[in-house]
Amino acid sequence: QVQLVESGGGLVQAGGSLRLSCAASGSIFTINAMGWHRQAPGKQRELVAAITNGGSTNYADSVKGRFTISRDNAKNTVYLQMNSLKPEDTAVYYCNARIVTWGTSQWRDYWGQGTQVTVSS
Which of 7, 42, 83, 95 sits CB 3.0–4.6 Å from 22 for a disulfide? Predict the structure, then answer.
């Protein structure tokens, strides 16, 4: 019923930038928070950044000042601008969104398929 499709990952040198996008589609009534998580090999998935439908943001300490999350509510899309990338930012990045679908009254978390970000030193 709902799909989250990510794009924008890739290979970049340390100090470079990438912009991730995630578009939600399907039987969407309303979207609350949207965000980005990441998972590096051998590590647990961690929150990178989140944004509410009102625009309030939250960042992991490790990315503050380097990453910026934004969203376009009209397009049901969330973005992650990543600047000054470091090798330790290498991970699979997952988009997620808390959504109420038509015909239901409860929030549910949906996830994208993930996009690889690799930062070379």
Answer: 95
93: tokens are 């990045």
User: Side-chain half-sphere of 96: how many Cα atoms within 13 Å?
Assistant: 18
What confidence tens digit (pLDDT) does each residue in 93-108 have? 999 999 999 988 889 9
The DSSP annotation for 3-61 comes to: EEEEE--EEEETT--EEEEEEEEESEEEEEEEEEEEE-TTS--EEEEEE-TT--EEE-G
H or E element that contains 82: strand 77-82
pLDDT tens, position by position, 39-54 = 999 999 999 999 999 9
Residues 97/4, Cβ–Cβ less than 8 Å: yes
